[in-house]
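Below is a filled-in request sheet from our internal design queue. Each sheet records the structural input a requester submitted and the sequence that came back. We keep these sheets so that new team members can see what a complete request looks like end to end.

REQUESTER: design group, bay 2
PRIORITY: normal
MODE: inverse folding
CHAIN LENGTH: 446
BACKBONE (tokenized):
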């Protein structure tokens, strides 16, 4: 019989991010982030929504942490808003730090392990105005911010995530332009930002280990399982493989193996900063763990007309879809196994996994049975990989509550707790009760 029980020390958690939940972006000495600016430009966000109020977590975090305690989660992944803590270059805002100190204290008082993300895309606007991550100076600013957090919280916080999904920041922020900072077709920007973000991670790893005992730092990597549309055609296989390199390996290989994927270098080396090879020497082996954010798979076919990559994404025939993406639980299993086979079985966490649902008239917004089905299937693949020796240590569900889903605004809901965005009232959905029971028993009933 298959083992359907997770070990007692498996870290069940939920994830959130600062700009998506906090609101009050300019309170108590904070300065704007690029997301504050971007979301106030008419036409950028669905219904012109923004994070001014969001879930009002800035004022209601106590209630939300009580909910975490009731869910019986063992860990909580959240991000810190950089411009709250460093409102201008080289300046520390104690009131900003104090907000996160209250959160850390409250979590620890409830025996919930904090996992802190340093960078979940809300770059300080002052940094962007200096060229943002296109410029190498961004690395020093990132280190100043990171050192400040390690000094303040290092005695109590042992799990750190330097970056959230650098691929999404780089592609949607510099090439597609539907996310902040909102550049389009800027390949140089994309590869410079990628490099400076990964280099920052590597240097933060060194600083953390020098200054804090028993701490670990990794990256939450957006991982998509890529497939050839027609597996029997070499050109489709090549297209899927290239996209795998571009989406997945480009952001893991430098900080594990100390190199950029060969297949990409031929096409992209000219877009990287000049000194990249020198930097790579200090970038390898700097992930204490790998974080995997997994939602979907994508099929690719060869396309002559797509510049540079010659790959075009196409829907996979026959696959079920959520409101955003196709559903493919085996992709999560495949990616987890790959951590074992290709990345030395590094410890890993599922740092995000979740399911979007829009509210529609005539349907109970608390009945999210489809979400439960999605979660079950994916958590089953986590267990399968774990039973096969993958060192996966925890699972963070995205998300604790409905929140500001970036370019999709408040329409696209990922929470297991519902937020009424008029009254800001929180209500548990069916999935929250289901998750609580799973955590309680550790047994996955399909
Ligand atoms: C993660 O991003 C983020 O870390 C988190 O902040 C976010 O809330 C969560 O996942 C859920 O999305 O226009 O339908 O083609 C995932 C980033 C955002 C990348 C949406 C793809 C365009 C989707 N994704 N984006 S769509």
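RETURNED SEQUENCE:
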């Amino acid at each position: 019989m298959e083992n359907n029980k997770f070990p007692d020390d498996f870290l069940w958690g939920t994830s959130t991010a600062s700009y998506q939940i906090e609101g009050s972006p300019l309170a108590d000495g904070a300065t704007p982030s690029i997301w504050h600016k971007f979301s106030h430009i008419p036409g950028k966000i669905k219904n012109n929504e923004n994070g001014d109020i969001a879930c009002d977590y800035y004022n209601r975090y106590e209630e939300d942490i009580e909910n975490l305690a009731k869910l019986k989660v063992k860990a909580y992944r959240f991000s810190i808003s950089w411009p709250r803590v460093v409102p201008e270059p080289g300046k520390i805002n104690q009131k900003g730090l104090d907000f996160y100190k209250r959160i850390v204290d409250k979590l620890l008082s409830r025996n919930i392990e904090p996992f802190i993300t340093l960078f979940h895309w809300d770059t300080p606007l002052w940094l962007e105005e200096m060229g943002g991550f296109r410029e190498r100076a961004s690395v020093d600013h990132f280190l100043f911010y990171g050192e400040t957090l390690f000094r303040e919280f290092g005695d109590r916080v042992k799990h750190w995530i330097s970056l959230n999904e650098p691929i999404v920041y780089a592609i949607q922020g510099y090439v597609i332009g539907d996310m902040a900072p909102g550049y389009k077709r800027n390949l140089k920007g994309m590869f410079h930002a990628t490099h400076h973000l990964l280099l920052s991670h590597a240097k933060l790893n060194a600083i953390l280990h020098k200054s804090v005992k028993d701490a670990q730092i990794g990256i939450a990597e957006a991982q998509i399982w890529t497939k050839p549309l027609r597996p029997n055609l070499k050109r489709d296989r090549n297209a899927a493989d290239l996209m795998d390199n571009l989406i997945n390996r480009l952001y893991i290989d430098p900080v594990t193996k100390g190199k950029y994927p060969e297949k990409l270098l031929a096409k992209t080396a000219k877009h990287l900063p000049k000194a990249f090879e020198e930097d790579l020497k200090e970038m390898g082996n700097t992930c204490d763990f790998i974080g995997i954010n997994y939602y979907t798979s994508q099929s690719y076919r060869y396309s002559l007309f797509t510049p540079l990559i010659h790959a075009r994404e196409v829907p996979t025939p026959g696959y079920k879809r959520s409101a955003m993406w196709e559903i493919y639980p085996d992709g999560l299993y495949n990616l987890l196994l790959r951590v074992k086979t290709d990345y030395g079985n590094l410890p890993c966490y599922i740092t995000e996994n979740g399911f979007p649902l829009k509210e529609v008239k005539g349907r109970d917004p608390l009945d999210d049975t489809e979400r439960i089905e999605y979660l079950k299937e994916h958590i089953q693949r986590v267990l399968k990989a774990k039973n096969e020796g993958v060192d996966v240590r925890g699972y963070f569900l995205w998300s604790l509550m409905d929140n500001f889903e970036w370019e999709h605004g408040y329409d696209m809901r990922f929470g297991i707790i519902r937020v009424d965005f008029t009254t800001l009232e929180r209500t548990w959905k069916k999935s929250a009760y289901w998750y609580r029971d799973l955590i309680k028993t550790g047994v996955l009933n399909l």
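SHEET NOTES:
- The mean pLDDT is 98.
- Residues 17, 20, 164-165, 168, 222, 293, 324, 352, 398, 405-406, 414 surround GBH (CB under 6 Å).
FILED BY: M.R.
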